[in-house]
Structure formats: C-alpha cells, structure tokens
Specification:
Elements lengths: L5 H4 L9 H18 L15 H4 L3 E6 L15 H15 L3 E4 L8 H10 L3 H18 L15 H15 L1 E4 L4 E4 H10 L15 H9 L4 E11 L4 E3 L18 E10 L5 H6 L8 H11 L1 E11 L4 E7 L10 E4 L6 H4 L10 H4 L5 H13 L3 H5 L8 E8 L6 E6 L11 E4 L5 H9 L47 H14 L3 E7 L4 E2 L12 E3 L5 E3 L37 H4 E5 L4 E6 L13 H6 L10 H8 L12 E4 L7 H14 L12 E3 L3 E7 L5 E2 L4 E4 L2 E4 L2 E8 L11 H8 L1 H10 L7 E2 L5 H15 L16 H19 L3 H18 L5 H11 L4 H10 L16 H4 L4 E7 L2 E8 L5 H10 L1 H7 L4 E7 L3 E6 L1
Parallel strand pairs: 1-2, 1-20, 10-12, 20-21, 22-27, 28-31
Antiparallel strand pairs: 3-4, 5-6, 5-7, 7-15, 8-9, 8-11, 8-14, 10-13, 11-12, 16-17, 16-19, 18-19, 22-23, 22-26, 24-25, 25-26, 28-29, 30-31
Helix pairs in contact: 2-22, 2-28, 5-6, 22-23, 23-24, 24-26, 25-26, 25-27, 27-28
Amino acid sequence: MSETNPAAAEPVAPHRYTAAMAADIEARWQDFWDADGTYAAPNPSGDLAGDPAVVARPKKFIMDMFPYPSGAGLHVGHPLGYIATDVFARHQRMTGHNVLHTLGFDAFGLPAEQYAVQTGTHPRTSTEANMENMKAQLRRLGLGHDKRRSFATIDPDYYKWTQWIFVQIFNSWYDAEAKKARPISELVAQFESGERQAPTTRAWSELSAAERAEVLGGYRLAYASDAPVNWCPGLGTVLANEEVTADGRSERGNFPVFKAKLRQWNMRITAYADRLLDDLDGLDWPEAIKLQQRNWIGRSEGARVDFAVGSEGDAITVFTTRQDTLFGATYMVLAPEHELVDSIVPAAWPEGTHEVWTGGHATPAEAVAKYRAFAASKSDVERQADAKEKTGVFTGAYAVNPVSGDQVPVFIADYVLMGYGTGAIMAVPAHDTRDFAFARAFELPMRCVVEPSDDRGTDASTWDDAFASYDAKLVNSAGAEISLDGLGVVEAKAKITDWLAERGIGEGTVNFRLRDWLFSRQRYWGEPFPIVYDQDGVAHSLPESMLPLELPEVEDYSPRTFDPDDADTSPETPLSRNEDWVNVTLDLGDGPKQYRRETNTMPNWAGSCWYELRYLDPHNSEKLVDPAIEQYWMGPREGQPHGGVDLYVGGAEHAVLHLLYARFWSKVLFDLGHVSSAEPFHKLYNQGMIQAYVYRDSRGFPVAAAEVEERDGKFFFEGEPVKRELGKMGKSLKNAVTPDEICAEYGADTLRLYEMAMGPLDVSRPWDTRAVVGQYRLLQRLWRNIVDETTGEATVTDAEPDEATLRALHKAIDGAGGDLAEMRFNTAIAKITELNNHLTKAGGTLPRSVAEPLVLLVASLAPHIAEELWRKLGHQDSVVHQDFPVADPAYVVDETVTCVVQIKGKVKARLEIPPTISDEELEKLALADEAVVAALGGAGIRKVIVRAPKLVNIVPA
C-alpha cells in the first residue's frame, strides 16, 4: 500500500545515513569487493589455488538452489535464501573457515523456449539478458559470491560435462550382487566369457549387434524403451509424472495430459532405490523431506505370485503385500496399458458373462479399446483417487488362482497403474476397500479369509465395507495342497511364500513405488543427447573428444503442437528439422559411417543434477573435477559419512524431484570412482516463503496492491472496495515488490536486515513495506553512535567502557554469535538491536573497544555499512575477514537473577540472587524471607522443590 517514505521526509545532516548515502556506500564497496577478489575461496590445487594458510582452515561449502533467470526478474521474496546463506557464509569466514559460496544459473528450460516461440527471439538471447538483469539485482544486495566460479548450464563448457556424465551412466549397469554401478564393458566381458549367461537362448557370439544392444538395454542405467508416458499434445512433449497436476493437466500451460506409448530415454533410478532410502539416515535433512522421499520411493515387502491365464502358457504376475489372503482372490485387475491385455482378449464374450461386466459392448476387444481411451484421458492421481463410481471392463479372460484352482475373471480398471508393482493385482474384495467397492459395482463374489474381530460374521456379501487387519487369524484358506486356517498373518505369509517358491509360481520380494526417471523432452532449449544411431538403429555414445555436442540453429524453436484434446498424436522435435545436423558421418573408432543423431533433448533437471561439482573446479577442461579438490570440499569426514555440501538452502518444493535426481547421479559417479562423495548435499535447510497481501475486486481479479488505500480497517482501490487475502507474491497478483525499489528507498543493508528480522528463516512470513523503516532506523542509530553527522568522522575514544556497557556488549556477542551460527538471524538482530539501543540511551562517545566489536557484530548482516564504519575507525583491511568478537564469560553471566518463590503454586516473593547459588543456599534464603514466613503463617512444610536459580516451590503440610 502507498505510504510516504520516512527516509525521504526527515531533515538531512551533511553526513547523516540516508538512502542516498547508503546507495553510495553500497556501490563503492561492491566495486571494491569485485576488484579485490574479497570472496575468492582458494582451492588446495589447480588454477584457483590460493593462500595455503586459508586452505588449512576448516572448510565450509555453502550453496543455494540454482536460480532460473526469469524475464520478470526478482521480487523481494526471491532473495530470502540468498541473503540468509550470505549472512551465514560471512559469519563462517569470521569464525575461521575457508568458505566456498557462489551462484550460477539453471538456464535451460521451457520458459525461454516458449518466449522464443512467441517472439522469434533466440532462447540464448533472452536467457542471457535475463541473467544479466538478475546478476545486477543480486549484486546490489551485496552477496559475497566467488564470481570466478559462476556459470550457467547453457555454457557449452558446462554442458559438455553434463553430456559426459550421461555417457558414463549410459555405459554403466547396476551389479545387484556388488550393489554398485559398473562399466557396461565388464558385463559384456562376462557375457563373452560365459561367466554370466545373457538372457537369451543363444550364445552371445551368435547375436547380431542389434540383438546385443537390445540385451544391454535391459541393463544400462540410461536406456531407451517403448513405455507408457505422459503425452501432452498442447505442449508437444512428454512429461515426467512430477510435471503433471493432480487433475491430469500439464503443470506448465494447463493442457490435458494423456497416456501414450512412445520410445523415450529413461534413467534406471530404481536400481538405487534401497541405497537412496538407506543413505537418508546419514543426512542432516528436515524429517519432512526425508519422509517425502521415503514415501516416494515406497519400499514394501511382499511376494510375487503367478496366475496362469490363457492356453499359451502365459501368466499374470502380481505383487502383493498380503499373500496370506491369496485364497480370497476372486478376480484380477490389469492396468489398461498392461502388455498381456491384447493377447488374452478372446474374440467373443464367454457364455454366461454378466451384462454389467461388458459395459454394453458387443465384443471384448471393443470394450477394452473404449475403456483404454477413457483411462488415457485421466492422470495417475485421478485414477488412484477414491472416486464414488468404480469403472472397469471385463477382458473376457479368466486366470487360475494358484492355491484354490478357481477360475477368476480378469478385468481392466483405471485404479491399477503400470507405474506401480507389475501393473496387475489379485483382488481380495473382502479385505480391501477399493476392491470391495469394485466388486459391489460389478457384482463379483467376495470371500472372507481373515476372521473379523467384530460381530459381522464371515459372510462378506452381507458386509457394508471390507475388513482389514494384520492381527487376526486366517479362515476359509484351505486347499488340496496347503492350509493357512488358524494361522496369524505373519505365519501365514511365511508359509504361503515358501509354498509358492517351491512350486516356481512365486517368491518373496521387495517392491518400490519409485519408477525409472523419464529423461527425454521433445524440445529445443535443452542439452542435446550425446547419442547417435547407426543404420541398424543401435545407439552409440559419442566419445569425449566429440563433446560438447552443441545445440544447432533451427528455424523454428517450437515442438510441433497439436489439438490439446487429440491423444492420437506423437511428438515432432525441433531438432529433427535440421537435417544437416541430424544426419552425419562420424568415425567412432571403426571408420567413417553414417549416423542419425538423437533429436530429443535432456530435461531441465539434467544440469542441476551435478552443479555442486562444477563450483569446485569450474575451469577444468580435462576432468569433471580434480579428485583432490572434490575430496577437499565434499569428501566424507566425521559427522558426514557420505560427504556432500555442508549447507544447501532452498525451497521444500524440490523434495522428490531435483533432490532425488541429484542423489542418484552422485551415487553413480561415486560407484564409478569419479567422486569421493556418495551424496551431493549433507545438510539441507528449507527456507520459508515471503508472502504478500493480494487485493481482489468484485470480479475476483487482483488489483495493484501499491495503489490500495486503507480506511477504518477496510480497503479501497480507485474508490471501490476490495478484499484482502494473504498469498504468494508475484507479478500476476499485482503485489510484487522488487528489491530494487527497497534498495532505492532505504538501501540494500536495510533490505537484508528486514528480511532476516521478519521471523524464523524456515517459516513463511508476510511482507510489510511499512515495517522496513524499523531496520533503516536501526542502521541510522548505529551510524550515529560511531560517526559525527556533521563532520563525517568517527567519534570513538580510548576510554574504558563502564560495567553495564561491557555486560550489554558481551551478552550481545555471546547471544548473536550463537544465533548466527545456527541461522537464527531474527534473534541475532534482536540482540544486536538491544545492544545498539543501550548505547544510544547511554549517550556520549563510544569507547573504541565497544565500537569495533559492534561493527563486527553487524558485519555479516549489513556488510556495506560495516565496511564503511570499519574504514572510518581507521582500518585499511576489509571487515569481511576479521575475526568475530569473543565474549568474556565474566560479563555474560548476570550479576543477579530473579527467583520466584511460590506457595501452593501462587507467587509470594521474588528474590534477587546470584546466578550460581546452590539449591541448599536458595532454599534457606526462601524460607527465611519475611513475605514467605508471613504467608506460611506458622504452618508446617511438607516439601520444598528447588530449581536454582529461578524457582522455589513450597508445599505446606
């Protein structure tokens, strides 16, 4: 809301701290830091090696999550995390650490491509312009980044190594016995020698190159396959599950998303599911984020069971965690996309098929085709939602329950997904709520096999809902070969699992919710795949000497888009239009041959999967990273068993996308010996969000928040009433405040202080421009305490401070120092403010022994004014690398504290006592106090509870 800036209204002394003075001070010191290389962090070796004494200090690697250079620039909510890491990094430097803190840009992605489509501007042109604008905005905030280490993911020198990592992953497989990735060449050698049998009926030497490639594709950690994907015709690309909203639409653009089968690149992240789960225990991450990753990976123990189907020896394989209920399986359900559906569908409905099973269709094939089209229009989230109406259709086929021998009908239904388990379930409707509802809708039988604990009986047809229990006995579970009757769930599971394994129709197994990572995008603005295909369609990776494979020019940046509602379409990529680039002659070691390049590009997640490593050794053109440098900054050490970045700050929204993908890449690189750290980020901290008030008119549209007036608690825009709500800050909501505006009105140091003082860093907080002035006035008082506003000279003396000032100073040093180390910036600012207020009230000229530690206290939070004051105090070196002041314990402890004396829970006296008093001494003083004696009135004492030095509680007899 509009308000006159108090800074502009106050009378100005010649050397008073004003917005204009702040702008001058801040610009000068930012120029000095750049010219001086103040924030350069030395490496132990290489081109960024520096002072050995600094390298010998404890290291601290501090990172922010990659910013994307948006054309809209920053609003004041964006820099919250950047300011916080900057304050922490500065404090770590002052406490004796070699600090690596820098920032790059995650610059590939769809927004720049869409802008290119709309305007014809090359994505690189608009992206680089956006980066320059963002760099200027961030520089104005005084962020202490090592600029020698900055880069963007669109730099060919950077994405050369993104492509190189892809090649390493492509040329690797996961050895389940060794529990690590190994080069694919070692697997080929095993097939050639016969040490390992290839999954074929023929010898490896008898296979063609294409056949060998097909076999190896089943092992590679990066592989291409025909698989169900999320196809978005409106965007002309496929999407990862995480990029599809709960209502089945694209996160970007809000277009419908359909299931389609396309050949795409995938990463076999599922091979690492156990390690991704187990290694969470060694990470210092918020428990909420760990829980999200555990749930996303979704480990569950159960059994694989085969149900024979058809006359061709086929079997439907299911995964179940309740194999003990196998006798209760009365029907089966396949995902509509399941590969067996087409082969088991008969030409006509079996005699006696229930009409409700057919969906009114003349043939099973017609019913299946119509239902598949219906299911393809729904997202996975929609399909798993507890819809009131259960949908599905009978395939016309029956399977055999392996324990009872019963024929059970096979349906397809949208609530079963190919992305979980085997894409098929055995339905036990008596003991599963969804199966129960489906059985009721399709008039299917139900068999109780777990004895209910209530009085409902065992006739499931009379029940209102399923009965589920892990603490009950099995009933109705006896067949010709095995009986589970009378057993508990645990015993029954073990018995049936052994029985299945003995007969080769099942086994105990572990299943994961995690699916392989879809890695292809039908876009232009992304990293090209370093893959070419020969005339037989076999994929070959490019050698390192041919990297980077740079993006070619194309006339049209847009993927071919289609009617958003037309699911029967397929992608056409922008790169495919450059025939001279796509079709090439290359010598990959066996002479020049014709090849066709891969025309998909990598997803925008690729570049951010490894960027922490590039910060370490950003100019290395020979290696991904120098091993000694990586070991120094990220290697395992005490308390960090998997290594990684010391502090990683960013939003919680990346819990199961970027963070999971980056962990996977780190583990592959670790297995292959390229890095010593098995995890990318040891400590993760999620900052909260800066919110802002949104004002909406009678139509519900946002209006300009800056032009809203408040009258008697109501809000008006251009004379019309508007409603206020708290929400996000953004250009579309017309409530964005830019950091440039606040810097111009108050200075960057004020903005930094305000954002850090708003509340705990990890919680969301509302922005209030009117409150910024409070931190501006703190800086003005700080300035006046040290500088004469008339002469501009420091006014400190060499006099000794009084005891009260010493106590205030050392308490602030002790309290603020601990708070800064633990990222409690709001309370650190409160303690510094308390000290500054004490000095202001005391009046007079500050002793140098107080002024200098005061400046050092504020240096990490407001670095520009601290540098200026440090220089005015006569120092020629930067404040950045000064030692943080040390508190004298003698002045930190209070001379006296107040002890409350209670009788029957009511306060009867307050005693001023030494903080070191013992329980025995305090009890004597309390019982001798006149007010306590009077309150007891001669009554006996049953008990005295002493909590020295703050509390005495007396219980009368």
